[in-house]
Amino acid sequence: DAGVIQSPRHEVTEMGQEVTLRCKPISGHDYLFWYRQTMMRGLELLIYFNNNVPIDDSGMPEDRFSAKMPNASFSTLKIQPSEPRDSAVYFCASSFDPSETQYFGPGTRLLVL
Amino acid sequence: QKEVEQNSGPLSVPEGAIASLNCTYSDRVSQSFFWYRQYSGKSPELIMSIYSNGDKEDGRFTAQLNKASQYVSLLIRDSQPSDSATYLCAGRGYAGNMLTFGGGTRLMVKP
After folding, report:
1. Which of A4, A80, B82, B84 can pair with A105 through a Cys bridge, CB separation 3.0 to 4.6 Å?
2. Which residues of chain B does A44 touch, with a Cβ-Cβ cutoff of 8 Å?
């Protein structure tokens, strides 16, 4: 299996621009998680989906952030408009069952200037 | 109290020694626990999971869970320079399927 796939791997953008991060979970995994990692705050859960349905988005920082999962093999995390404080590494992870291991993608390094 | 707490380190140990990494947790994340290893610039990868009190061994790694004292630890025997990484402790609570991560402990194994 190819593992969790994320794109782009690196993104540099200017403040105010829209940013879209993409994720393809491992085939057959029903759970998909979006995390953000910074030096200051560590690894934080933003939102997770079960069978393409958002279950808990309490970690989404504000209305500028939105996430969708139109089908079982694709999810997006969008930031509009982006701000310098959004600079972080964004990870997508998937799992077959909530009690099972979460497998992380390689992450997207976002820098907002 | 944070839900999952770790000493940020760095924890420095000589090659061949036992590295002991510790994590404490609150009542909200007391169901099951996971240790992830994260190399610099890479994504977290699972090392071990533990669900019940006691020890669980896998090769050079031993996870220990003490629910009465609310701590979980990871022991790495015969530490190698390749073990140098940040180790993240994560707990899952009774409600929901979310993992809560600690801030991580940076381990440095010196040759």
Report:
1. A4
2. 101
